[in-house]
Amino acid sequence: MVRASERSAGRRMLKNLVQALLRGAGASESAGAQAERLQACLTRAAEHAAAGEHAVAVDCYRESLELQPDNPRLWCNYGAELCESGEAAEAERAYRHALELDPELAQAWYNLGQLQQERGGENEAERCYRSALALPEAARDQELWRLAHSNLGLLLQNQGRLQEAVDLYRAALALDPADAALRSNLLFLLTAMPDVDAGEVLREHRTWGSLHIQAHAAHANLPDPERRIRIGYVSADFYGHPLAFHVLPLLAHRDRARTEVLCYYNGAKHDQMTARLQQCADGWRDIRRLGDAEADALVREDGIDILVDLSGHTAGNRLPLFARKPAPLQLTFLGYANTTGLECMDYRITDSYADPPGAEACYVEQLLRMPHSLWCYAPQQPAAPENPAPLLANGYVTFASFNGAYKLNQALIEVWAAILHAAPASRLMLVSLPTGAVRERVLGWLARAGIARDRLEVHARLPTDEFWAAHRRADIALDPFPCNGGATTCETLWLGVPVVTLAGRTFVGRAGVSLLSNCGLEQLIARSPEEYVVLAAGLARDPERLARLRLMLRQNLPASPLLNAPAYAQALEAHYRDIWRQWCSRQGRSHA
User: Fold this and answer.
1) Which end of the chain is more exposed for a tag (fewer CB within 10 A), N or C?
2) What span, in angstroms and rounded, lies between the C-alpha atoms of 127 and 115?
3) All structural domains of the chain
4) Single pTM value for the model
């Protein structure tokens, strides 16, 4: 879950580009009245764009183009406003016309690349970004240079070209080391990459924390250890996002007499899940348009005792807000598979499966371990559907992967190929594997490992109903490594498909250990790549055992800790109460 492509450089009409256009207009217009009219058009366009009135800004640019039809920057800005208005096809035509007028207009190449990226045209987007970066304008414009590196890095990251993405992020950070969101992208990627030293990853996270820590104002919270405590949850994913299906149980089953909950929403999407979460909360705050200082003041005004980060370094996070320490106690969990790097993030919720004793060395935060699972899942369907092994009808086993493409790497694919060789009649279904370069690379790895194309079923991202239907064609799911599935694994288990996982050394590679241990499938946890092959292939060769496992999963999962929301909420709130009592005790000693 990473940050979306950045639009700020592509939409900088309000200041730099408008001023440049006005300078150009003054130099090229001999008629003062026409120059004044152009200036008025551009000024109105900037005002309407700033107010979010993009359709009106489009009309202003159309009027300005009547005055300067051969101005490439006008066409570029016109395209940007068309894009904001949802007219992607017209925006593309505007950008391409700008480039016909000036092939060296780096801003137009960047904007076109961004549009192609948003529309799924990855190859064309990469070509556009690289064209922009090759031009002198991009080298002169530090913001454009930084954002083109950042967006291209995100594009390559989503294709699984992780090292290339890391290099691009580092190049962008060389210009602005304190760019919080860009450095978060780098941290997210380093966490998911194979063969990156855990010590290096921790150092990088600490660097983020040291760059963004703020002075902390004192807290006025009443240090009464047994009063009703106020808890704030911060996320950009309070909608039909996988995270929300883990947040809903802890809100719905909390002890309302002992806790008061406010949700601080940093996202723009609103759907049925948003409404359900709002109903479960005592208060709802939209902070997407608030700066960190304003959000800090709001949290303090609300009297939050424990502020909970649900994002870590993923898209839409508000870690710079946490760097201000707006609440006496701060903790992180659910949304991110690593430390935040912030010394003022007091705790991290985990469990002993994902973070066994000794894992403390990997974190800045103090670990609070849940008694069973750190996850609790609220299924999207009322009951797990009947799902007998497809092997019984097909005559062959179908292995499947439902995780994002960025989690796929060559070492992993070679292990999966070994599984297919050990189960000669088996097939592999890859879901959420985009078309283009990323798919060709993964299929190339499989081909070089001796797996014929006719043994593969490959899909790009599927609509929800088709995604669920794909599970009904899968016998055994394969958990990726070193970056395991989390919410995806929960959904796969709920849909009746057993998962084979490889236990890693750190949290990112131990999510599968936690999830399988908490639903009675410990026998599907491998301790080495060789054992991973033996477990998966052995299960494929034993249809009766596979059928028993699937039946056991269906029977046991509803009563497992993964779905026991009341017990989960009670255990979590016990942690909250314990750390609150400790804080109150410290206040008493400080005043003694």
Assistant:
1) C
2) 12
3) 9-136 (1.25.40.10), 198-214+226-376+565-592 (3.40.50.11380), 391-559 (3.40.50.2000)
4) 0.87
